[in-house]
Amino acid sequence: MTAIQTEVLLQTLISGVLLGGLYALIALGMTIIMGVMKIINLAHGELMMVGMYIAFVLFSWLHIDPYLSVFIAAPFLFLLGIGLQKYLINPVMKVDSILPENQVILTVGIGMVLANLATIIFQSDYRQTPVSYGTKAWYLRDYWKDSPVDISLSMPWTVSFTMALLITAGLWFFLTKTDMGKSIRATAQDLDAALLMGVNVERMRVVTFGLGSALVGAAGCLFIPIYYIYPDIGGQFTLISFVITILGGLGSTVGAIIGGLILGLFESLTATYVGMGWAPVGRFVIFVAALIFIPGGVASLLRSRKFGK
Amino acid sequence: MKKHITYIVLGLLALVPLLGLSSYMMHILILVIMWSVIGMAWNLLSGYCGQVSFGHAAFFGVGAYTAGMLYSKLGISGWWGFPASVVVVAVFALGIGYICLRLRGPYFALATLAMGVIFRIVAENLVGVTGGDLGIMLRERTWIDKTWYFYIILLVAAVTYYLVRKIIESKLGYYFVAIREDQDAAESLGINTTKYKTIALILSAVITGFAGVFYTNYMGYIDPKVVFALHDISIITIMVVMVGGVATYWGPVVGAIIMVLLAEIIRSIPKLGTAHHTLFGVLLIVIIIFLPNGIVGDFSKLKRLFGMRSPAP
After folding, report:
1. Which candidate in B45, B53, B98, B113 is best for mutational testing of the A interface (most A CBs within 10 A)?
2. N or C, which terminus of chain A has less Cβ within 10 Å?
3. Which of A53-67, A68-82, A279-293 is predicted least confidently?
4. Would you place residue A143 in the very low, low, confident or very high pLDDT band (cuts 50, 70, 90)?
5. How far apart are CA A115 and CA A105, in angstroms?
6. DSSP letter at B273?
7. What one-character DSSP code corresponds to residue B53?
8. Residue A262 placed within a domain
């Protein structure tokens, strides 16, 4: 392998890891909702889109940095998620119908409304937040003159990745160390047992949906400096988070993080070595392969955690 | 009367072209019947067998592309797509079933959704085979007049209706419903659930493929974004059945009438046109919360609702 080839490979791996960290954050929101409520939230990507537009509006009107708007978008989405769960999803969970998938179809309806409202308000143009540090990067040769390969590290990507890590760590702290986090995990593991132990299951569901929405809203803010937005962007992120959730093992948070990294790496490898247009196909190849070869996901390989069956 | 309602409706529909309706009205009618076919196909798999699919655009698109590629690659009429699509769509459905039927409930739903998207992306990128985003254009239409198209899709719909009815009233249909109600119980009673789910999937896929073949020949132009569309095909398919009535014979027809008319009406109002997904979404939410079994399924509930206003008998 020549130096150039090594350089390209290393660069691809680095961008894969950076992308994977962000993917993991998106998938975490879906995973905890899936674990506690046992439903797939198909409006997940649309909630992220809402987060992205909040960051966009705050940036273009009030010149608030997208990284700061995490602290505005996340609470807003938390409330939005609570509202959706309380007034739309909860009533449907009680209604009797032939198809048990009604809640999933309901989230599709919510997603459609959100995406279409965004189209009406913001038009379907592609938009960006031109942050001043958008193209800044660190180069390895600047710090180590005789390095055999030159690798660059884009500043916004690195900052987003670091913040995603911090948020993930915060979530881990919340789930393992606080009372409410423990209650949420108990609800996910065994609903009836949690109920018998005096956990307010209904409240945990509402909080979890809010929390999942807040996580994906935060991810939206982290994505905005390095990506562009348009109202229909949500669908692709819903699929990404679903693929990661399958890859990681349904409802497993550790699995979601590992799954996110694998997907990020694989996607950036396909983009470099097969072609940009095929990157989404690479994502689904992983998905199909995961379904056939490791149906339980990474979590089943780890055997560290198990939620039901 | 009630026994013969199907024949009466069919007979009346067959007489419609004699009315001399405008070309636009015929177009609407053809769309309604086409969506009824897709709805009935989806209903077979999802309504009766309980395997909710979010990816019927994949089968619709494969059917459409079978017809389109017969024309563009082999130079024969797109109508040969009808026999050819049976094999092609069945093979694809078998593959999708092998992968997706390992999953249950909502996970199956999302896996099929992913399949629909994969098909679109592959069709967009395999430029040498499908023509990519340029799509396929049939240079000469079979008929200028819409009458024959109407009769062809009506025949497809009639056959589909008959087939669905026969299947559901046979042993196979009872297996499907048993799987929907409780898969583990069905399995323990000796039903090979994987086999019957695959049968339901293939039947549903082939019928949807037929609609796709018809679409190519009728519209004369297809591209991946149109025939593999997530919102405009897969989701509308679900809405047609949800609105009309899940697991009812006439639900998809009622749903197709409502959805096609609604889409046309919304599109014709200026300003409101861009909001049609919002209105569809709201309609979906309202239907799921208040009429979870659709208009046909919850007809008694609707009757009671409106009956309350009239004086008590």
Report:
1. B113
2. C
3. A279-293
4. confident
5. 15
6. G
7. -
8. no
ipTM: 0.79
Name the residue range of residue A207's domain: 3-233
* Average pLDDT score, chain B: 86
Q: Number of A:B CB contacts under 8 A?
A: 129
How many other β-carbons are positioned within 10 Å of the β-carbon of residue B90? 18
Look-up: residue for tokens 């996970």? B107
Cβ separation B230–A235 shorter than 8 A: yes
Q: Domain range holding B148?
A: 2-228
Judge whether residue B311 has pLDDT over 70.
no
What confidence tens digit (pLDDT) does each residue in A160-171 have? Answer: 888 888 998 898
Q: Report which of B82, B100, B211 is spatially closest to residue B153, judged by C-alpha positions.
A: B211
User: B221 forms bridges with which residues in the sheet?
Assistant: B137
Going from the C-alpha of A108 to that of each of A13, A51, A298, the distances in angstroms are 34, 18, 27
Q: What percent of chain A has pLDDT over 90?
A: 10
Asked if A276 has any chain B CB less than 8 Å from its own CB, the reply is: no
Q: Residue B139 contacts by C-beta under 8 Å, 6 or more apart in sequence?
A: none
List pLDDT tens digits, range A190-203. 888 888 888 888 88
Cβ-proximal residues to A25 (8 Å cutoff; 6+ apart), any chain: A164, A167, A168, A215, A216, A218, A219, A222, A260
Q: Look up tokens 């969506």; give the residue.
A: B35
pLDDT confidence bin for B309, thresholds 50/70/90: low
Q: Do residue B102 and residue A291 have CB atoms under 8 angstroms apart?
A: yes
Looking at the predicted structure, is the pLDDT value of residue A307 above 50? Answer: no
Task: Count up the domains in chain B and report the number.
Answer: 1
- Residue A111 in domain: yes
pLDDT digits (tens, 9 = 90+) for A117-135: 888 888 878 888 777 777 7
Sort out which chain A residues have CB atoms less than 8 A from B246's CB and list them.
Answer: 97-99
> For chain A, how many structural domains are there in total?
1
B95 touches chain A (CB under 8 A): no
Q: Is residue B271 part of a domain?
A: no
Name the percent of chain A in helix, strand, coil, to the closest 5: 75, 5, 20
Three-state secondary structure call for residue A229: strand
Q: Does residue A299 form part of some domain?
A: no
Whether B306 is in a domain gets the answer no
In a domain, A66, yes or no: yes
Query: B93 near B201, Cβ under 8 Å?
Result: yes
**CB of A242 less than 8 A from some CB of B:** yes
Distance between start and end Cα atoms, chain B: 26
Handedness of CA A59, A65, A67, A70 (dihedral sign): negative
Q: Are strands B136-137 and B221-222 parallel, antiparallel or unpaired?
A: antiparallel
In the predicted model, what is the mean pLDDT of residues B45-72? 91
